[in-house]
Design goal:
- It is built from three helices and no strands.
- It is mainly α and 97 residues long.
- The chain has one domain: F1F0 ATP synthase subunit C (F1FO ATP Synthase).
- The chain starts with a helix and ends with a helix.
Length: 97
């Protein structure tokens, strides 16, 4: 198994090394692609996080309806923090561009 890992690492590094050499000379042409991928991944992650938070709060309110008032503040703070990370990723993606 160790021989397979070493062979896989050698194969991957031999495939990646030329791409890195080309990337240094043509980095400006790939910047919009990288920026688009960065904001896309951030948006997907933020959407999944917000969905998980919303489902957790709905389940918590379903289990204990009297605690709904106490759960609103942490819910909205959590959503705001998740959204702020997506906005930060957007700003970073714009800086890459």
């Amino acid at each position: 198994m160790n021989q397979f890992k070493a062979l896989s690492l050698a194969l991957v590094s031999s495939l990646v090394a030329p791409a890195l050499a080309v990337a240094q000379t043509e980095a400006a042409s790939y910047a919009p692609i990288g920026a688009g991928l960065a904001i896309g991944i951030a948006a997907i992650g933020g959407a999944l996080g917000q969905g998980k938070v919303a489902s957790a709060i709905a389940e918590a309110i379903g289990r204990n309806p009297s605690a709904a008032g106490k759960l609103n503040l942490p819910f909205f703070v959590g959503l705001a923090l998740i959204e702020s990370l997506v906005i930060l990723a957007f700003v970073v993606a714009l800086k890459m561009f």
